[in-house]
Amino acid sequence: xxxxxxxxxKQLHLLSFLKLCLLMLLVISTxxxxxxxxxxxxxxxxxDDDYRRLYTTIRRFGPFYNNSQSVTMHNxxxxxxxxxxxxxxxxxxxxxxxxxLDMLNNKLEQCAPESVWSIVxxxxxxxxxxxxxxxxxxxxxxxxxxxxERVNAMVERERLSNTYREFYGCIxxxxxxxxxxxxxxxxxxxxFPIHNDQALNAIIAVDIKESRTQDIINxxxxxxxxxxxxxxxxxxxxxxxxxxxxxxxxxxxGFHYLDILRTTFGPSILLAxxxxxxxxxxxxxxxxIKRDEMTGLFRRDYYEPKFNRMNxxxxxxxxxxxxxQINDEYGHQKxxxxxxxxxxxxxxxxxxxxxxxxxxxxxxxxxFKGIQHSALFDKAxxxxxxxxxKEILGLSVTVSIGGYIAKNTTFSExxxxxxxxxxxxxxxxxxxxxxx
Length: 436
Ligand SMILES: Nc1nc2c(ncn2[C@@H]2O[C@H](COP(=O)(O)OP(=O)(O)OP(=O)(O)O)[C@@H](O)[C@H]2O)c(=O)[nH]1
Hints:
Elements: H1 2-59, H2 61-67, E1 70-73, E2 76-80, E3 83-87, E4 92-95, H3 98-111, E5 116-123, E6 128-132, H4 136-144, H5 147-157, E7 173-174, E8 178-179, E9 186-196, E10 199-209, H6 211-224, E11 229-230, E12 237-241, E13 251-255, H7 257-290, E14 298-299, H8 300-307, E15 312-320, H9 323-330, H10 332-349, E16 355-358, E17 363-368, H11 373-388, E18 391-392, E19 395-396, E20 399-407, H12 411-427, E21 433-435
Parallel strand pairs: 14-16, 20-21
Antiparallel strand pairs: 1-4, 2-3, 3-6, 5-6, 5-10, 7-9, 8-9, 9-10, 11-13, 12-13, 15-17, 15-20, 16-17, 18-19
Helix pairs in contact: 1-3, 1-6, 1-7, 9-10, 10-11
């Protein structure tokens, strides 16, 4: 029986813990969704800012190009560290761009770490190109083209010839992502045309790894503890954004419910466990302050100060008859069980607002409010009979009860009167009720 009760208490605990987990999950995941929603627009702005910073950095190369001195070079490939110059005609004046390209590469590395794939500067009309670095595939493909045709096609395709007329910083152009056939790297190319006197002089083409956008998102998520993505399938929330000066259409920034759930599940369980523990340790503490550990009735030291402030009430004092004999014959442990059972029966006979206190070893005080003489007697009889009518642990146990109705009386006077009435019940043969 005790095992059964234990088990159902455990199940109740588990159930209330699970309910708390669910509640926490609901509250935390909803808050986290709102948090991610608030960040979606900011992520779009961050992506826009990052690409624009990249464009600005590339544009700063323009003055350097214009101010660079030329040297004469012959047909062939000329290597200067990571930089290679491919010249297709003899006696070609070639700008010395090494320092500027180094600087540009460093600055780009700061804006977009590990994302710069290559930088190419092509003169227009093209007799040479500067590559940083020159990948083997480039050289191959470059040799099969007539450079000027290749550049003209690029200018045509990307509409680079008159970007100087355009506004909003979109003098640069970024292509859609594509796979570079020589390297199989997924990249985008950013073109910046250098115009002088409304004529196109050169094109800087910076290849950026397509993963740059994902890097920005990853960094943003890490910095802000968000779970945002772009163009994720089945997102539950999304907002539209566009890469600045890019050829591709809008993208969708947002988040997926599973990501929200995955991130909030752990903290929700942890928080629920903490609340659960805090609540139960508070309950246990509160209970141990108020309740007698053995019987579960109120403790005397908790209620006596409150009783001392009362002056109108009805009270009963109840004492188990011949209890010493029970102890002596069956041992203290059985005696304890008898006390517990009597307390349990007592608790079932009174209302929730009545206060039952374990006053001493096998003595109890019950306090009632708004109850008259005859009702108090009936209540005491009801308690007495409830205990006497059942065998308790195979024993016939009875109680004697004394009662008193206090009207402008201190508690200690009332207690004395009720105790005297209890004495009379004992004197009259026990298993009796006497009201003073
Ligand atoms: N097992 C047990 N015994 C207790 C506890 N507190 C007090 N007692 C014992 O309860 C007995 C109370 O005996 P008494 O009040 O003298 O008298 P009684 O045997 O109950 O007889 P009457 O009250 O005259 O009917 C004492 O032997 C105490 O040691 C307790 O928590 N557990």
